Amino acid sequence: MIQLKDKLLRGLLWISAFLSVAVLVMIVGFIFYKGINLISFSFIFGDYSPTGGGGIWPMIVTTIYTILISLIIATPIGIFAAVYLQEYAKQGRLVRTIRFATESLTGIPSIIYGLFGAVFFVTTLKLGMSIIAASLTLTIIVLPVIIRTTEEALKTVPLSYREGSLALGTTKLQTLYKVILPSAMPGVLSGIILSIGRIVGESAAIFLTAGTVAAMPDSIFSSARTLTVHAYLVTQESGDIELAAAVGIVLIVIILVINLSATFISKKLNRATNK
Amino acid sequence: MSIPTNNKQVVVIDKANKRKYMLEKMSSRIFLICALLSVLTLVLIIGFVFYKGAHPFVAEGYSFIDFIFGKDWVPSEDKFGIFPMIVASIFATIGALIIGVPIGLFTSIFLAEIASKRVAKIISPAIQLLAGIPSVLYGVFGLAIIVPFLQNTFGLVKGQSLLAVILVLAIMMLPTIVTVAETAIRAVPQTYREGSLALGVSHIGTIFKVIVPAAKSGIMTAIVLGLGRAIGETMAVILVAGNSLIVPTSLTDSVRPLTTNIALEMGYAFGTHQDMLFATGIVLFSFILILNFVLAKISAKGGN
Questions:
Q1: Radius of gyration of chain A (CA)
Q2: Nearest-by-Cβ selection for B284 from A15, A102, A112
Q3: How far apart are CA B253 and CA B233, in angstroms?
Q4: Range of the domain at A10
Q5: Are B171 and B226 in a shared domain?
Q6: Closest Cα of chain B to A110: distance in Å?
Q7: Which residue of A has its CA nearest to B139?
Q8: Which of the residues A27, A65, B22, B70 has the least number of beta carbons within 10 Å of its own beta carbon?
Q9: How far apart are CA B118 and CA B123, in angstroms?
């Protein structure tokens, strides 16, 4: 009886694992199979043409803009916030409130961020549907990610480093940027890279704040569409699955590169700090 | 360092120290302000969304009950009822959980306990990578493969349906659940396994009676994270939901969940119509809070 049950459960485990892997392989396979014919130099680096046959360079540029702007704002704020929580704050009501706020921000779905961005950045601050409005919205989305990963990284820096440095007569600030932050760097970097992944994959919040203009943005104050929004719109409006899949290939390659560099950087830096 | 011998040198060191102290004080203030920014943004988000969303009910005399239980959403006729969308969101989420959680959990157990090291080393990172794929692509896949499949299998007029939404969301939450749950299961101490096996319990028995219960809190986190991804998903869902404004009575009905309603109409809505979309956002927000609360309760209960 027990043996039968064991066999049954074991079978279920195998079937589930097979199903998961099969479905996920199918998705990636489907994207590549459908889209690979469109991939060419002129597709990636060519200007978009609404009549078809154009490239996706404007969407790539827009995506890069959003990544750069939101990281430039979110990274220092996130790192400083984590430093405060880990190195400066006395545990108490204030820290609990900040932690609660950060955790709550992680759980909010991106469409709500989009609503907020649309009313706050687009309307109230009069930025209009623009790359800058979308980037500011994305800043709020990735801020908790950077805070959390930096905090984790700071936790792993041994107390003896701090004591050693302070005992040499350095100030707290000197200890922070000469000793603590450098040894926490791998963790901080992987947090930043995680954030890039989050920004690249985001669609709903950008859709509501950057608009859908399919042209090379003149400046960060013009409306534009990112790769994900483009993939969505060509599917929704014209049912052009092949084009969407080709954009999908570019997205998957970006995510792959991001993941590999995260692994690479943390390995390399880990080795450097362990020396 | 030599001991300062005259007044001039003392003054110089004093000045340098003063600057140092100032810098110390200022930087700790800046760090505090940065940390408070996340509180401020949360307050702003809740404030703005609730202010806009509550406006029609507080200032314009719309009934909140009619909003929640009304079955008609016709902005041009001033009718705002989101009951069909609430039902669609609940069904879609529960359906995705029913399919996605067991498969994801069993896959993570397989990878952590059954698969050989070499196999797990290939599959685990691949699944981790899939967790990072933009969700829009899951929607494109759903529209191109799942929707026509349902259409042909069930002989539907259009394949965009509640079932299509459920399947796409279940697939989308798989990588998250597998990755997080696998980490949790691997973190269970080896001694637990050895102790159980030494008592004569079979390998499978050990997995389900000892290891899974020990990894329960991590597994719950996995489910909550997967759920979070599914429930807030918008763009992928628009592509496969069909967006009909009816209360779904079967799995093959075309539906419009809460998130899609916001994204579809936000582009051209203004005035009361736009406020009602914010109100839809509030409902979605509360929905997520309640679900997280319930799941936290379940896991706390399981812990005892």
A1: 23
A2: A112
A3: 19
A4: 2-38
A5: yes
A6: 7
A7: A232
A8: B22
A9: 9
Q: Which B residues in the span 91-120 are in contact with A, Cβ-Cβ below 8 Å? A: 102-107, 109-111, 114-115
Picking from A165, A157, A152, the residue whose alpha carbon sits closest to that of residue A183 is A157
Q: Could you tell me which chain A residue has the CA closest to the CA of B102?
A: A16
The type of residue at A50 is P
Residue from the list B20, B239, B292 with its beta carbon closest to the beta carbon of A171: B20
- A116: nearest CA partner in chain B: B45
Q: Which residue has the tokens 């979110």?
A: A74
Same-domain pairing of B106 and B56:
no
Instruction: Report strand pairing: B73-74 vs B79-80.
Output: antiparallel
Question: What is the count of structural domains for chain A?
Answer: 2
Q: Are residues B221 and B251 both part of a single domain?
A: yes
Domain span at B14: 7-61
pLDDT tens sequence for chain B (304 residues): 555 567 777 777 788 888 888 888 888 899 999 999 888 999 999 999 999 999 999 988 888 899 999 889 998 888 899 999 999 999 999 999 999 999 999 999 999 998 888 988 888 888 888 888 899 999 999 999 999 999 998 888 888 999 999 999 999 999 999 999 999 999 999 999 999 999 988 888 899 999 999 998 889 888 888 888 888 889 999 999 988 888 888 888 889 999 999 999 988 888 899 999 999 999 998 888 887 777 777 766 655 4
Nearest CA-CA distance, residue B112 and chain A, Å = 11
Residues B158 and B102 in one domain: yes
